[in-house]
Amino acid sequence: MGVEAFLFYALALLSLFSAVAMVGFVRNTxxxxxxxxxxxxxxxxxxxxxxxxxxxxxxxxxxxxxxxxLFLFVIMLLDLRTDDFGSMRPGRRLLKVVGxxxxxxxxxxxxxxxxxxxxxxxxxxxxxxxxRDVGIRLFTEYVVPVETAGLLLLAAIVGAVxxxxxxxx
Amino acid sequence: MVPIxxxxxxxxxxxxxxxxxxxxRRNLIVILMSIELxxxxxxxxxxxxxxxxxxxxxxxxxxxxxxxxxxxxxxxxAEVAVGLGILIALVRxxxxxxxxxxxxxxW
Amino acid sequence: xxxxxxxKTLFIVLVAIGALAxxxxxxxxxxxxxxxxxxxxxxxxxxxxxxxxxxxxxxDVIKLLSKEDVVPTGANRFMHLMAPxxxxxxxxxxxxxxxxxxxxxxxxxxxxxxxxxxDWGLLYLFATGSLAAYGGVIAxxxxxxxxxxLGGVRNTAQMISYEVTMGLSVxxxxxxxxxxKLTDMAIAQDTTFRVFGFLQLIGFDEMPATLDWxxxxxxxxxxxxxxxxxxxxxxMAENKRPPFDMPEGxxxxxxxxxxxxxxxxxxxxxxxxxxxxxxxxxxLTALFLGGWSVPYLSQEMIIAAIEPVLGVxxxxxxxxxxxxxxxxxxxxxxxxxxxxxxxSLPRFRYDQVMDLCWKIILPLSLANIFATALxxxxxxxx
Lengths: 169, 107, 382
Known about the structure:
The structure holds three protein chains of three kinds. By secondary structure, chain A is mostly helical. Chain A has helices spanning 3-24, 29-49, 53-77, 92-117, 131-140, 143-164. Chain A folds into two domains: 1-84, Up-down Bundle (Four Helix Bundle (Hemerythrin (Met), subunit A)); 126-169. Chain A is built from six helices and no strands. Chain A is globular, with a radius of gyration of 21 Å. Chain B is mainly alpha-helical. Chain B has a single domain (4-96), classed as Helix Hairpins (Orthogonal Bundle). In chain B, 72% of the residues lie in helices and 0% in strands. Chain B has helices spanning 4-24, 28-52, 64-94. In chain B, helix 1 runs antiparallel to helix 2 (28-52). The longest helix of chain B has 31 residues, at 64-94. The radius of gyration of chain B is 18 Å and the shape is elongated. In chain B, 49% of the residues are buried. Chain C has one domain (2-381). Chain C has helices spanning 2-35, 56-65, 77-93, 121-142, 146-177, 182-188, 199-202, 220-223, 225-238, 263-288, 299-310, 312-344, 350-381; strands at 103-106, 109-112, 192-194, 215-217. In chain C, a hairpin with a 2-residue loop joins strand 1 (103-106) and strand 2 (109-112). Classes of the chains: A mainly alpha, B mainly alpha, C mainly alpha. Chains in contact: A-B, A-C. Chain A binds chain C through residues 28, 30-31, 34, 37, 41, 53-54, 57, 60-61, 64-66, 69-70, 72-73, 75-77, 79, 130-131, and chain C through 76, 79, 118-120, 123-124, 126-127, 129-131, 133-134, 137-138, 140-142, 149, 152-153, 156-157, 159-160, 163, 167, 180.
């Protein structure tokens, strides 16, 4: 087993483990957020192994380094430590169990279908996934989505400021 | 190199964990984080498939998957900003993070 | 292959972290003493020999190791213990892409003195900077203390704001050199350029040959002076160096986010800060001051000069030694410069820090990118 394969399986196990930990940490929201950070960093490592270097860098800089820090910020500002909530309505627990079972069954079906569906991965072309290639494409072929994404971010900034502002009545 | 099926299987598993989290947990922040996890699982699927069909017919590289991942990350950033804004406004008004308390419009 | 990486990593760990970081504590004490017209710490001695205060870092380490390790009640024990490690690791791994020597040919083998020669070196540095925000965040939250929490919140806001402007201020350098690889940037800075070359753009086609001799090294600081100033400000704010050390405001927040830490855990935070000083110095050198290159003497000139006397192999080795020494000298100059800034400026207020980032540096660095693009187009068209 080569180094790449070993790294891939190690990172995959780490990401699965921390994803389960995020959902499973009922008492401690901050620990859940930090587990999600671990998931994202291990996913960035998997992106590097799959040849997508720029996407891995952007994942760490934007996702793990800014978006999740924003989550941690909100958790710290609202000082949320544990969740002890009241009891649920009668039918809720059954509905949740049904939901979990259905989604797990769906996942199992997908995983079972996989081995016959996909061909082998070929060799990588030169400069694949590097910043030069992706950058040129972003600004020539895909310039309209990039500009629209800029407008979307502007709308999100304005919306977030208005939503989180205190009412000055 | 690892067969791509394993990366897709990992993506499916992470997506399912995200769905389970969004369905079962009652804490609003954990639901938002589960949505982020689902977006990440989809990103992984995009990158894995991009690796699979990396060379385009004329010899260059085909990078559609990675560019889509950039767009998904951008949209996720926008969604997190607005989502956390809504969350802060909700917590200020109802003083609770329980999603069961945000149920006035439900039948 | 693996041996080369291990050796280069060992060099970094021994020199930058083992030797420079303790020396910086000494530099800080002595430089501040000289600037404030006093003597500084000089009492630590071994058997009566005080080496001008150079033994104080050793005394510091012994003191920190022997203190009681306190975890406050009500604090999350695991996170309280993990936070110093999360703070120090990004500072150390940032050294992996900073080149402390050039690329040398020894017959068939090429030796490149940088532990990891990745294509997107500059992005890697931004990624480690982004991860460094977590140390302060977790430390502030996990200490179960209001002052720590405030320090942690301020720390987070400051660090994520300055990451944006840090990225934007380096786009100019990226455009000029056309690469994100720090080794290529250092190699590109190994030449000189004519100062009066801009006259050709204005219309003077014939320039007297004497003006061609007025040359400056092709360093980032001459090509992008505004970029240097912005990047210096942003990276000092990102690493919470004074005058931007609001999160550790000693007079406002007691000690900010590392209030509840004692003993070697505090020592780890302290060490993280000083390793970051070396990282800042190394980055500024690699991007703006030409890295390992000797000004006006390019690598080919040095090797060609020594070659007749000692042969190619030995000439390359001597050139390598000269380059590494030049790099270390430049790093020391930048460390001295940072200490100079630290001990001259008073601390900024929190809203001043945020104003500076979003209202001043962000528009100006965008204008810098525009201006750089215009100048490059003009030079390219001429």
